[in-house]
Specification:
Layout (H helix, E strand, L loop, with lengths): L16 E2 L2 E2 L27 E8 L6 H4 L4 H8 L3 H21 L9 E3 L5 E3 L6 E7 L2 E7 L3 E7 L6 H8 L2 H8 L4 H22 L33 E2 L5 H6 L1 E9 L2 E8 L3 E6 L13
Length: 293
């Protein structure tokens, strides 16, 4: 959920539509031929409890390798979007498809995805790792695990009034955390730690975050403190529990909060998670250890 998105739930933008003709948003590569489904050996594996997060800086235009593997229904979907949402959609789906193919035999174009009633993509009749995708201005991420996983990333500089939002959406003790965090930057960071943790948990459960914001209470913990650095690959390990949430003991939820860049806040929630590792890609979607297949 984009904190800045105030469009009513269930509505869809009509940008890019001229009469009955769908137009391609600027900057989206034209797909001349679709990759034929086939299979190759996977390059990565997941041990029980492992969670892998793949991160890619948002490019000015989606990589052609991402646009080329989208299904026809996905291309129709992004054709109805404004340029920026369309770019992030293509990057998110492309990253997802290429990430899945790092762990299982099908090539990126061969994955068959469907949406749940709440709009979450899931595999249809295919075996593969559990996954979740999130994107915001400047960053696209995909988390995979053998167990249920949820991920959320937010850009902190877009948040203007963390105190009012905390009072409106959070448990009173959490709102007190935000209000007592110090300066504006500290309050923003405290708010986004709690927000992304709640969002990631709701996505792991497959439900909307709106109904979960006040039901979970996370313990007080400042995000990283002096150890945080601006280097994009400097993650601050901060696994925490879900406090007094009933589902924590039942499903063994484990949470991580990290700062992948100076501007971004990332949370991951996984059932039975024991270890989190992060892998950076460049803006073309390339990883030094595992080229796109």
């Amino acid at each position: 959920m984009n904190i800045a998105d105030t469009r009513p739930v269930g509505t869809r933008p009509e940008w890019g539509r001229k009469g009955a003709t769908l137009t391609r948003p600027p900057g989206i590569p034209t797909v001349r031929s679709q990759v034929k489904p086939s299979a190759q050996n996977p390059t990565h594996s997941l041990a029980p409890g492992e969670v892998h997060v793949w991160l890619m800086p948002e490019p000015a235009a989606p990589p052609e390798a991402f646009a080329a593997v989208l299904a026809a229904s996905e291309r129709d979907e992004f054709a109805r979007m404004a340029p920026a949402p369309a770019r992030r959609f293509v990057c998110g789906r492309g990253l997802l498809r290429h990430t899945l193919s790092r762990y299982a035999d099908p090539l990126p174009a061969a994955w068959v995805l469907q949406r749940t009633e709440r709009g979450r993509p899931e595999l249809l009749g295919m075996a593969g790792p559990s996954f979740n995708v999130s994107h915001t201005q400047g960053l696209v991420v995909c988390a995979v695990s053998a167990g249920t996983v949820g991920v959320d990333v937010e850009r902190g500089r877009r948040l203007k009034d963390p105190k009012a939002l905390a009072k409106r959406f959070f448990h009173p003790e959490e709102a007190s955390q935000v209000l007592g965090a110090g300066g504006e930057d500290a309050r923003r960071a405290c708010f986004l730690r709690l927000w992304t943790l709640k969002e990631a948990h709701a996505k792991a459960l497959g439900c909307g975050v709106a109904g979960q914001l006040g039901k979970l209470r996370f313990p007080a913990r400042l995000p990283g403190g002096a150890r945080e650095k601006e280097a994009r690959d400097d993650f601050v390990e901060a696994p925490i529990s879900l406090g007094d949430a009933e589902s924590s003991a039942e499903r063994g939820w484990v949470c991580w909060y990290r700062r992948p860049t100076a501007a971004h806040h990332l949370s991951v929630v996984a059932a039975g998670g024991t270890e989190l590792s992060c892998h950076w890609l460049d803006t073309a979607g390339h990883d030094a250890t595992a080229p796109l297949r």
